[in-house]
Amino acid sequence: MYNDGEFARWRRHPWHGLAPMADDADEGVVTAYIEMLPSDTVKYELDKNTGFLMVDRPQRTTATPPALYGFIPRTYCAEEVAKRCEHADVADGDPLDICVFSERLITRADIILQARVVGGIQMIDDGEADDKIIAVLDGDNIWGGVHDIADLPPIKTERLQHYFSTYKMIPGKDIEIRVDTVYGRDEALKVIEASRTDYNNHYGHLFDRKS
Fold first, then answer.
1. Angle at 202 between CA 193 and CA 168, to 5 degrees
2. How far is Cα 167 from Cα 179, in angstroms, rounded to an integer?
3. Residue 170 DSSP symbol
4. CA-to-CA distance for 82 and 128, rounded, in angstroms?
5. Which residues form the signal peptide (predicted)?
6. CA separation for the pair 108, 77 (Å, rounded)
7. Rounded CA gap, 75 and 204, in Å?
8. Which pTM does this prediction carry?
9. Other Cβ atoms closer than 10 A to 40
10. 3-state DSSP call for residue 185?
């Protein structure tokens, strides 16, 4: 479907056309494509076919994401990610989500940034593994020195857990979401590696020059 020449001529697809980390990145620093801001009351999501950011749905509740929200390029949540989640047999079939804390206000989405991974939340959404990696903006003047989840104030993680446990709520409809498992940097890096393996297993053919 894609080859290096096409990537060079046109804007790169945020999912398939960007590397998950810069060549010179420190260990644990990944590239994040940002879809949503903490001020967004509409859920924006990448349209996987075109690579453009689209309106997925207006948020039904007043909840807004407590951090920048997006995904890590060239990741995919499938069999290997599901193996890391004891209570899920499958994963959600999307790129791996990432939440990034920044001390300075970032006022637009559809951007990329470098994020230092510090942990994650093992979210199970209706039986599917839907992990949320937690990170801080690399080089941030307040959060840049954070290296593990224990270095963050607990309220930061609690707000993320509350958001993801409630943002799909509809009055009168039961939605089974679990966000009770929080893990540190080491496990987060293993989840990222599993998602990269899943991506290569399912989409590696996109980079086969013979395809």
1. 75
2. 12
3. B
4. 8
5. none
6. 26
7. 11
8. 0.92
9. 14
10. helix
The model's pLDDT over 74-99, given as tens digits with 9 standing for 90+, comes to 999 999 999 999 989 899 999 999 99
Which residues have a Cβ under 8 Å from the Cβ of 200 and sit 6 or more positions away? none
198/140 Cα distance (integer angstroms): 31
Contact residues for 43 (Cβ-Cβ < 8 A; gap 6+): 36, 55, 56, 57, 58, 59, 167
Instruction: State the CB neighbour count (10 A cutoff) for residue 166.
Output: 14
* Domains annotated on the chain, with CATH: 4-207 (3.90.80.10)
Q: What is the pLDDT of residues 40-61, one digit of tens each?
A: 999 999 999 999 999 988 887 7
Please give the Cα distance from 58 to 33 (Å, whole number): 21
Instruction: Extract long-range pairs of 148-156: CB within 8 Å, 24+ residues apart.
Output: 148/118, 148/119, 148/184, 148/185, 149/118, 149/119, 149/120, 149/182, 149/183, 149/184, 149/185, 150/184, 151/118, 152/101, 152/118, 152/119, 156/66, 156/67, 156/101
In this structure, are residues 41 and 63 in contact, taking their beta carbons and an 8 Å threshold?
no
**Cα–Cα distance for residue pair 17/185, rounded to 1 Å:** 26
Q: Is 90 helix (H, G, I), strand (E, B) or coil?
A: strand
Give the number of other CB atoms < 10 A from CB of residue 147.
15
Pairing of strands 53-58, 177-184: unpaired
Which two structure tokens, joined as six digits, stand for 78? 């499938």
Short-list 38, 104, 28, 103, CA closest to 70? 38
